[in-house]
Design a protein that fits this description.
The protein is an alpha+beta fold and 1226 residues long. Helices cover 31% and strands 23% of the residues. The chain has 33 helices and 45 strands. The strands form twelve sheets. It has a six-stranded mixed beta sheet. Helix 24 packs across helix 25. The longest helix has 25 residues. It is elongated and about 140 Å long. It starts with a helix and ends in a 13-residue tail after the last strand. The C terminus is likely disordered.
């Protein structure tokens, strides 16, 4: 009997194969809900569809037909309830080496029915059920149960919305084993199905891929085309609905495409820094939202990187965010029907305008780009609307060979996708590019072999890829045109500490503690410009750029009732909101009818063409070592000493911390000149400008008093210098020479430094000409520092160019040669114009381009200016300007008014010489700079010289320095006269004073020489001069020298025959003897050097006359002020403040009782001395070709009787009756 029972029982079918499975698979339209996470966290994502295993391992492949029939037969005989599954809970299976995170059905009734189905299936195969089965759908794996990454994944999985469906089929999967590129690979395929309602089995002709299987398509799935993840899905944003929750918003592109695009368009991007420790702290979240909601930062589109589930849930709760940004690419994960974000670090787009988006996945998991298509932002051409495409960017981070290679692949894939799918659309690429820009970081990584030279080439290639795609960096475009005002907020001191490629950094560990914590003390602890907004150049006009998130805030914690300040003392601290600064740009979408020229600069601008440095010149490190070896860069001791000197001067002069009603300092002290520009050397003076609300006379009286009191603190007043531009104090502070000037302007002091952000047309600058002249150096300096593309490159290039110019004897403004501001203008325009090249131009190539450009520059006809500042230049160059190097702000544009034709020829020849040297094969920077012998080469280059002998035997430093300063400034007259008399002669002056080599330097009687070398100009006939021509030339030379001597000796104001002497003569080279350069100050500081004439000071600062000259004049006295006054005749009576020349001109022209045709203007020509012209022919407009500055007016005279009615020197005015009274003059 027992044998018969045994024979009647079915033979068990073995279930020991891992190559087959009996499982439940959800309807295909539900897959994206699982796959968005599975694709990133489940290592079996590509091998298995989303499934719940019913029996696994299952039967052998050859047993599948029999097993299917047995199970179908058993199910048909056993009545089963309808099986529903609802995946609504999360759990984890811990394993030995990893953990499995899964979702499951938490309802016991439903799961019991699933267990019943499993039991029936096993029974059909003659097996009994096991107790360790637990239904689950795998979402991903983790390594460490205690790690934050595991806890974040578990939390993310728990945020999945519950998914429910009715199980009507069981699926049979079979494994297909493959070999791909020599690697074994397997994948489950659909072998067949078992219908639970009809009990029929269905088998595919051959196993089908599960993502394309016809057996997996149900009735509901036939309506949709679902791809893995959401790569090809068109997604729509979420908006706050009337129901008080976020809901998906789907709009009709066809309807909205008829609308016009927004103009202007503002786009902001912000890496908000994800929290990497679980549970995530929300202390920074309010600070981030505060930064985003700043009125000046609110944008049309906002792209956030490193967004986590908790932060997105937090920001979506903010009412202001919901009101301004109506559309969000992803809904808040804490809303029941919303999915979590796919990754821990996500990109989310907020927008005021509707859009749709798709996801472009990169080769690395978690990396990709959100491709956003706006429905009503774009170009409208008749009835055709072309929408703007935004591609979000968050490239792989790090500086390794692998990470840089990954960046290259990601960027290449993105640009290829945009070019293929949207070739005619306007593009915007915005986000965290993670491209290392600091040259210091790159060089250090290469030196330590962290990266290879190929990786360095890849980094450069990334920039080239962007440029070749026609993309414009909005930061760079806005900076060169409008300026970056970050320097004003932080002060410019930080700029001197940066390296090439660190300008405009958005990730700065040297300032931001959050950034410093992330990078530690390694190679990456330098500023990097990671965050960018790029636009397709032909479709957008950049109109502005700013950064945000640079202000510290107090950390907060979330509470059950909202947000409150942190109470824990360990957390009660100030912090930045993120490790990155945010970036925001404003754009104009260019419509076809706009007809806007993208090169909006002046047509007068001379284009700059790149001249790449040769291989022997292109090493930046060697270039810097060369300059360092020459002692050009300041040492740390020099830097510290000058900082201390500046702070000491500030504390002494500004003494009392006076503030205005708006709680701002009443006075400001601003470094200008080379120190302000950050290009000073150890031998440079520090130029300072004080701005305040009081008069100049009061300020200098107060400053002098305070400085004298502080002599024991290391501050000495050396002398007081008076110039047409005003008074200047020469100081010595902690052994540092400082020149202090003053500008009286209440409005500028009260609005400093904000005033430096204002355009020149702002009413704040409706100031007297003299005040504007005082402010000009500061305004020009601020503009250069705000707009130069890479300050570190500019600074090093400036150092080299100035050193070269000094060595070649072409650096001295007073002699009509190059000056600091001129080098700045010339270099700035080259740097800016080269900033539009495909890749950042390295420092050596900027220098070689600089020298080649100006070697070929036509100085006589072309203008040198910044075309981004003077974008519509209307400058009229006069015959008095042999060269025009235009500065920036008024009142005077041409910085080269002292230039003469001879000096221009010298400058031009030197540029040609430099370009020729740099073009030689094998030339390096050390050889280039050492190829200059300076003054020795000058002395050997000429056979004949004009020797200007200057002598001074007085004691006063003010008089000695004033005498030589005046003499030097008048040498230009001699050069001009020589060129006029002898145009075929090439005169070249060396801009320094020589002395006999054997002079000890201790003499109190000073003697020195200024030398002008004479040669025949190469541009003239090479035939030798005849005897008669030679005699005529010598006669003209002597006449010119005699006239020059007469002009100098005849000026009683500056030449005192009792203490000084000068002569000019022709000498041969052999007559010069051995010479050396004189670096002495002529005279010593004496009591009275710092005294000044009150009335003269009043005239200087009360007059509105044009300031065009900075010739220094001595105002000090060799005796004390008290004794000097006692020796003078009684002071003449005054009848009111002496009226200016401008007032006189206006009175004569507009007074009906006066005939302007009866008056003559006497003025001083810079080269020809005193000249006259009729008042009616006097030109007052700067742009007029015959314009002459009013400060050169000496007198007004009536034609009819020859009476001088206004005399500046004697301060007599019969037009208004001011100045010295004629009644008491006798």
């Amino acid at each position: 009997m027992a044998t018969e029972e045994a024979l009647s029982q079915p033979r068990p079918v073995p279930i020991n194969s891992h190559d087959t499975a009996l499982c439940i698979i959800p309807p295909k339209h539900l897959w994206p809900s699982f796959n968005r996470l599975r694709s990133l966290y489940d290592k079996a994502y590509e091998k298995w569809p989303p499934h719940i295993n019913l029996v696994y391992p299952y039967v052998q492949v050859e047993d599948l037909p029999r097993a299917s029939e047995l199970i179908a037969s058993e199910i048909k005989q056993v009545p089963l309830d309808v099986l529903n599954i609802r995946l609504d809970a999360t759990d984890v299976f811990p394993h030995r080496h990893d953990n499995t995170v899964f979702i499951y059905d938490s309802d016991e009734d439903r799961t019991s029915k699933l267990h019943d189905l499993r039991r029936v299936a096993l029974k059909a195969l003659a097996h009994t059920t096991t107790t360790n089965y637990r239904m689950h759908m795998t979402v991903g794996q983790s390594r460490d149960l205690s790690a934050s990454s595991h806890k974040f994944l578990l939390q993310k999985t728990s945020l999945l919305p519950a998914v429910e469906w009715t199980v009507d089929k069981l699926y049979i999967l079979v494994r297909e084993r493959l070999e791909i590129d020599g690697n074994a690979f397997s994948r489950m395929k659909v072998w067949g199905t078992l219908d639970l309602t009809t009990f029929a089995t269905c088998r595919a002709d051959s196993p089908e891929n599960f993502d394309k299987s016809q057996l997996l398509i149900g009735a509901i799935d036939e309506m949709s085309n679902i791809a893995p993840g959401n790569m090809s899905l068109t997604n729509y944003p979420y908006t706050w609905s009337d129901e008080g929750k976020w809901a998906q918003h789907q709009c009709s592109p066809a309807k909205l495409s008829k609308e016009t695009g927004l103009s202007p368009l503002t786009i902001a991007s912000y890496n908000v820094l994800a929290e990497f420790h679980y549970p995530p702290s929300e202390a920074r979240y309010p600070l981030i939202v505060r930064n985003i909601l700043q009125q000046a930062i609110l944008a049309d589109v906002l792209i956030l990187q490193e967004v986590t589930d908790s932060f997105l849930s937090f920001i979506c709760q903010n009412d202001d965010i919901r009101r301004h940004y109506r559309f969000v690419s992803n809904g808040p994960p804490n809303q029941d029907d919303m999915e979590p974000l796919p990754s821990h670090l996500n990109v989310v787009v907020f927008s005021r305008r509707p859009f749709s988006w798709s996801w472009l996945a990169f080769h690395r998991s978690h990396k990709g780009s959100m491709i956003v298509e706006f429905t009503d932002i774009g170009k409208q051409d008749a009835d055709i609307f072309t929408p703007t495409i935004l591609a979000t960017v968050h490239l792989t981070c790090g500086l390794t060979d692998g990470s840089v290679s990954a960046k290259k692949l990601e960027l290449k894939a993105l640009l290829a996708h945009l070019s293929d799918k949207y070739p005619q659309n306007p593009w915007v690429l915005a986000g965290d590019f993670n491209i290392t820009t600091s040259s210091y970081t790159i060089e250090a990584a290469l030196k330590k072999k962290v990266i290879s030279s190929q990786t360095v080439a890849y980094l450069k290639g990334l920039e080239g890829m962007l440029s070749k795609a026609g993309l414009v960096d909005t930061w760079k475009a806005a900076r060169v045109r409008y300026g970056d005002f970050m320097g004003i907020e932080q002060g410019f001191g930080h700029q001197t500490d940066i390296f090439e490629g660190e300008e405009g950094a958005t990730f700065n560990p040297t300032v931001n503690e959050l950034a410093a914590e992330i990078v530690g003390n390694g190679l990456n602890n330098r500023p990097q410009r990671y965050d960018r907004i790029l636009v397709k150049g032909g479709d957008f006009l950049v109109t502005g750029f700013t950064m945000f998130g640079r202000k510290l805030g107090r950390l907060y914690e979330t509470t059950p009732i909202g947000v409150s300040e942190v109470k824990d003392a360990s957390e009660d601290r100030l912090s930045y909101a993120s490790d990155h600064w945010g970036v925001r740009c404003s754009l104009k979408v260019i419509q076809p009818e706009d007809n806007i020229s993208h090169e909006d600069t002046s047509k007068l601008s001379v284009p700059v063409y790149i001249n790449p440095a040769s291989s022997s010149l292109d090493n930046v490190s060697e270039l810097k070592r060369c300059l360092d070896g020459l002692g050009i860069f300041p040492s740390e001791v020099d830097i510290t000493r000058r900082k201390e000197a500046f702070e000491l001067l500030k504390s002494v002069v500004l003494e009392d911390d006076l503030v205005t009603e708006s709680n701002k300092p009443a006075f400001v002290l601003v470094p200008v000149g080379s120190y302000g520009l950050g290009v000073w050397t150890a031998s440079s003076d520090v130029d300072c400008l004080c701005i305040g609300p009081i008069s100049a006379k009061t300020f200098f009286a107060l400053a002098t008093q305070r400085i004298r009191k502080a002599e024991d603190r290391g501050i000495i007043l050396r002398r007081r210098v008076n110039a047409h531009s005003g008074t200047m104090l020469e100081l010595e502070v902690l052994d540092v020479k400082i020149d202090l000037q003053y500008c009286p302007s209440t409005i500028i002091a009260a609005t400093w430094p904000h005033a430096m952000r204002l355009p020149a047309t702002d009413s704040v600058f409706a100031l007297p000409t003299q005040t504007l002249a005082k402010l000009k150096p500061a305004r020009d300096m601020y503009y250069i520092r705000q707009t130069i593309p890479d300050y570190a490159v500019f600074r090093t290039a400036y150092y080299l160019i100035r050193y070269w110019a000094k060595q070649r004897g072409i650096y001295s403004a007073k002699f009509g040669l190059l000056s600091g501001i001129q080098i700045s203008v010339l270099l700035t325009r080259v740097c800016k114009l080269l900033s539009h090249e495909e890749t950042p131009i390295p420092l050596p190539s900027i220098l070689t381009t600089f020298f080649q450009h100006y070697a070929n520059f036509d100085w006589t006809t072309q203008l040198a200016f910044d075309p981004f500042f003077h974008d519509r230049l209307r400058y009229v160059r006069t015959a008095r300007e042999p060269v025009a190097v235009l500065g920036f702000y008024p009142p005077s544009l041409n910085t080269a008014l002292n230039a003469s034709l001879p000096s221009v020829r010298v400058i031009s020849n030197e540029f040609k010489r430099a370009d020729t040297l740099l073009s030689q094969e094998g030339m390096d920077w050390t050889t280039f700079l050492s190829a200059t012998q300076g003054s020795a080469e000058f002395l050997a280059a000429f056979k004949t010289f004009i020797k200007i002998d200057a002598q001074f035997w007085g004691v006063s430093l003010a008089k000695g320095s004033g005498f030589v300063g005046w003499l030097e400034s008048r040498c230009i007259m001699l050069l001009v006269d020589l060129n006029r008399r002898l145009p075929n002669i090439y005169p070249r002056i060396w801009p320094a004073r020589f002395v006999n080599k054997d002079d000890s330097g201790d003499e109190t009687d000073y003697q020195g020489y200024y030398l002008i070398g004479l040669d025949k100009w190469e541009g003239f006939n090479e035939d030798p001069m005849s005897r008669d021509d030679m005699k005529t030339a010598l006669s003209s030379l002597r006449a010119a020298l005699s006239k020059f001597e007469g002009q100098i000796r005849g000026d009683e104001k500056y030449f005192d025959p009792n203490t000084s002497w000068m002569s000019a003569s022709l000498v041969n080279r052999s007559e010069l003897g051995a010479l050396r350069l004189d670096d002495r100050e002529w005279g010593e500081y004496t009591i009275g050097d710092d005294d000044f004439d009150d009335e003269e000071e009043d005239e200087i600062f009360d007059s509105n006359d044009e300031d065009q000259s900075r010739t220094e004049t001595p105002t000090g006295k060799s005796k004390s002020k008290k004794k000097t006054i006692a020796s003078l005749p009684p002071r003449p009576a005054y009848t009111g403040k002496f009226r200016s020349s401008a007032d006189v001109i206006n009175r004569i022209r507009w007074d009906p009782n006066m005939d302007s045709g009866d008056y003559i203007v006497g003025y001083e020509d810079r080269f020809l001395g005193i000249k006259e012209r009729t008042l009616d022919s006097w030109k007052a407009e700067q742009t007029d070709e015959e314009f002459i500055p009013q400060h050169r007016i000496l007198y007004f005279k009536r034609k009819s009787d020859g009476v001088i009615v206004w005399d500046r020197k004697e301060r007599r005015d019969t037009i208004f009756g001011t100045g010295i009274s004629s009644i008491n003059s006798g």
